[in-house]
Queue: 4 jobs
Job 1
Amino acid sequence: MSEPDRPAVFVHLLPGLIPPGDLKGSVAVVVDVLRATTVMVQALASGCAAVIPCGQIEEARRIAADLPAGSALLAGERHGLPIEGFDLGNSPGEFTPEACRGKTLVMTTTNGTRAILASLDAERVLVAAFSNFGMMVQWLHAEDREIHIVCAGTEGEISFEDALLAGGIARNLRDLGGTLCNDEAEIVSGLWARVEDVIWTQSGDRDLEENPLVRYLVRGRGGRRVQELALMTDIEASARMNRPEQGLIAELRRDPLRIVVAR
């Protein structure tokens, strides 16, 4: 029996760089490492029933108000800062089981939720973080549709940390027999190859106090902004790869629009 075709992999470094019509019939994987997709995976792992992504603050307020009393958790940020009147900001550590269990998270962020909404032409939309990296690669390896990894970026500019995660997913899929189909996929795959060698080499150093991936996440504009806000714990949380309790696939469902754990 012949080996099945492995997925064709594309990377888009910003939602605005997706060629019109390219997502139709595909699987889109949205990446916003610092911090929206990291938070979404964390929230679902902590017991949120669903995450509703919103583009605008007032839209999020309206949707939360229309949910049954006590069931909504309103969260998000603008330019990295919590939104006045919201329950939570955009820090992964805020999304504990105590805060999340049984709630519907209504969320709006500067970059991540907008990237998800920009990917609705895809047949399926998934949400990736370093925390569910291995599970995501395993899941995508079985796909027979085109895979488009969509980086959220930082306020309209390409972000280093999103490119790293996109590169990690793309390179692992290539190593499993997939095909990298655009220049962006080749570029970020090569970037990840250089970083990966350092990460795995230094991860075995018992005297190393810091996760080596943290050093890379702070290099980009998004990481520097999070540092300026004195939120290094957010970067450390976002750098934790393959967390067993977060080994899940977060998938966007339609009618109504919400992100849930794929079963």
Note: The chain has one domain: 8-261.
Job 2
Amino acid sequence: MTDGQELSNGDPAAYQAAEAQSGSHAGRLNRLRAAVLGANDGIVSTAGIVIGVAGATLAPFAILTAGIAGLSAGALSMAVGEYVSVSAQRDTERALLDKERRELAEMPDEELAELAGLYEAKGLDKELALQVANQLHAHDALAAHAETELGIDPENLTSPWAAAASSAVSFTVGSLLPLLAIVLAPISLKISVTVAAVAAALVLTGYLSARAGGTPYLRSILRNVLGGLVAMGVTYGIGRFVGHTLA
């Protein structure tokens, strides 16, 4: 979006409705983070492996074997890591919610006063803050405290299985491009074709992440591409050194 252009394009009501339907920004950003991280890791790590092996030998079977091993290990590592991380986060959120339930059951008046104090700290006057707290307590006290005090949505806890599957799939999809590029390219062009394919893929993931997150395109693209090129350059240099020194 260019500077000076209205967010609503002249229709604020439609803009607000679409924003409401899009759901939680935190949830979308978490899904975006996992997908982009998985895809970028797949692209860069697999490209680094196959380029590094190509620096030592251009034997197609050796490159293919290394690429498949890297893809498999990376996808499993991403899935396990994401599952463990999200499970720990989910366990912590559940423990906090359980504690909040006990506090609401054992000291409801104090919890009501606490919630009113939180809204007062956000800028409401004391009387209005108490009215808001009373209404929210009557509707869903746990949800009110979880959102305002803990920053948690009790009905929308992240699934560790979904996060693990998403990371594994995105890593695999990202890994396939450099693997196919280096395997299918002619021997004399394997490295150059792979570098070009990886750079193009990183441009795409950088653009998509910037578009979804509403951030500047160029910065995201440059960050992706430069990081990938540095990784491939380092692993290729190591492969050349090891291949020529130990061969």
Note: The CA atoms of residues 61 and 183 lie 9 Å apart.
Job 3
Amino acid sequence: MTVITTIEDLRVLAKKRVPRMFYDYADSGSWTESTYRANSDDFQKIKLRQRVAVNMENRSTATQMVGQATKMPVCIAPVGLTGMQSADGEIKAAKAAEKFGIPFTLSTMSICSIEDIAQNTTAPFWFQLYMMRDREAMARMIERCKVAQCSALVLTLDLQVIGQRHKDLKNGLTAPPKPTIANLINLMTKPRWCLGMAGTKRHSFGNLVGHVKAVTNMKSLASWTNEQFDPTLSWADVAWVKKQWGGKLILKGIMDVEDARLAVQSGADAIVVSNHGGRQLDGAPSSIEALPAIVAAVGSQIEVWMDGGIRSGQDVLKAWALGARGTMIGRAMVYGLGAMGEEGVLKALQIIHKELDITMAFCGHTNIQNVDQGILLPGTFPTA
């Protein structure tokens, strides 16, 4: 039996167990994938200062993200098609997050619906909204979030047009997926996955099919979504969402200081420094490189979080030291889910937390609230 000790162990196992088209969907970037690689590579350049002869007892990694208590400054990022990594994947991930004590974010493009998560968990969860041209459909979706008692809305701003994701095109990952001979042969090598999918009715986009006019199946959904991502998205639309929602609003996809200032003016409660996991603008800087300047510009006015490239608790600690008051993990969760379902997601969170806790101790701290840039070796980290 494989001993799982790192997120990389979970990734290797997930690659064996998940059909290629769905594994590649999650574990790839756009165009040359240079930004996708930089997201994780740039964390490795940042070096830590080890301290000794410091009392390391009674450590705490606890904090709050938009007023919600969390065991560590981590929440689960919204990931589309999570329910294709493992049957009922979003439900499994949400349950694992609740057990561990961190927030879970459901994607608009999830397989399990808002109602599925509400029925299977008791902790308040967050919902990620994509801006569509059909404002009536958006208003109804926001209303469903209120009924489900979602505690925050995450509005993603960087998907007005979709990046060039070559692996998806080569794998025939469309809605519905193309049943090519190569894909069918690959599916035959994933019996565990196929058995799981045979045991659930959730195979389409649960937040859209049956909830949006004229979308009754995967085929009609494909034509609807192709027309719906709104390239005209503006700050006026952000104001519209804020008014419709009325609760905690998080803006995801900020990579520029000017946009960060506009986000503050919009009245958002938090922003996420994010390049969409390197899946949109290839050639953009890594999230961790972009973080310090944005923190310097608006960190005293709004909660600044980041995502992209986090594969360990050390990465979380480095992001915190550079001013992020929260992080989002997508791929680390997906690897755990694809490898071992709910148990795998819980394992991923345990791995990240243990690395975060032990690294913090080695850097001479027992409470994450006291951690700052002083734990980093000068000259090894990006500055504002």
Note: The chain has one domain: 7-373.
Job 4
Amino acid sequence: MTVTSVRRSLRRRGFPHRLLGALCAAALLPAPVFAADAAPLKIGFIGTLSGPGGALGQDQYDAFMLAIEQKGGKLGGVPVQVLRQDDQLKPDLALQEAQQLMSRDGVKIITGVTFSNVMMAIHKPVTSAGVVLIGSNAGPTQLAGAGCSPLFFSTSWNNDELHEAGGQLVTNLGYKRVYVMAPNYQAGRDAVSGFKRDYRGSIVDEVYTQVNQPDYSAELSQLQAAQPDAVYVFYPGGMGVNFVKQYRQAGLLGKIPLISVSTIDGTTLPALKELAVGAITSAPYSPDLQNPQNAQFVAAFTKKYGRPPSMYAAQSYDAATLLDTALTSVTSLKGNVADSQALRRALAAAKFQSVRGPFSFDANQFPRAGFYRVDVVRTANGASFETKGPIVPKVNNPVAQQCKMN
């Protein structure tokens, strides 16, 4: 519309001549853009939401959405839309979903990712496309070392580190001969490697089983015949439920001490209940950790979903809080995350209250955060977790020293 046409239109409506100039100028100004009218910031969420590992991804998703709900549907003051994808624990499917999120939906941030083989499939294609990837569980050790990326952040741990704490715990407990078991995939192999790095004793045997194997009777017979001082296992999700049930049924729990990581946790204890009593876990999180952020998180999560949060939920809640803090600090973005490097700098510098306790990023953009001995104890409702204290971490992280950011 031209100034002349605006003037004629106003004159026909009887506006005084002295006001025509001002009204014409105002009519030609661009319309103001209000935050409420802005398109929401799209965030892709990829997780394992079905099958034996589905409870893990569901906890990640539920906690991420809880954080957004608590902030009025926004992160960093910007309305967000979360596009959820179930990878079904299939790396090829996860890669297709990531590519669709980036090309079809235009997302500039992807989060979640439950299993390490899935993370290895999508990590390079996502970060190479200039998209920020914030992992809230899967932590392949390669990505914390030589394969690190400026656009990849983790709010969990790297696989070696998680099990190094387990190795230190078993050493602290004084067990000299240990039998080790894990599923045969990336995280399982990393688990055994990390455990052996910090365990100061002898490995009786290390056994790798099929992913999602339902029956462990043959392996348990071999284990019992080996007569170890203790057993160390890593069986996330439904694998953990099956293994612990069969370990109890074989009469081994209470006879041969069971120490685990990501086997008996908030996603599996509701199914195991008192069957898991007596087991010892090495964990990055427990619902009874004493800090204000965790207290409100546990109360809100339990009220909304009717179950206590697991470590998967805690790490994903931290991912949302991290993103909220970063987007808040970069006021120039105002929801436009096309400048991935600016967002990356904000994420690296973000200071936020983690539900896990003291938290900061190492040079590889994985957390410096604590690990804890958490026992399964009997309660009136069956069983619950009881934190016994921190596991003292190593001063230097050899994996992080291999990371050379470009």
Note: The CA atoms of residues 295 and 321 lie 15 Å apart.
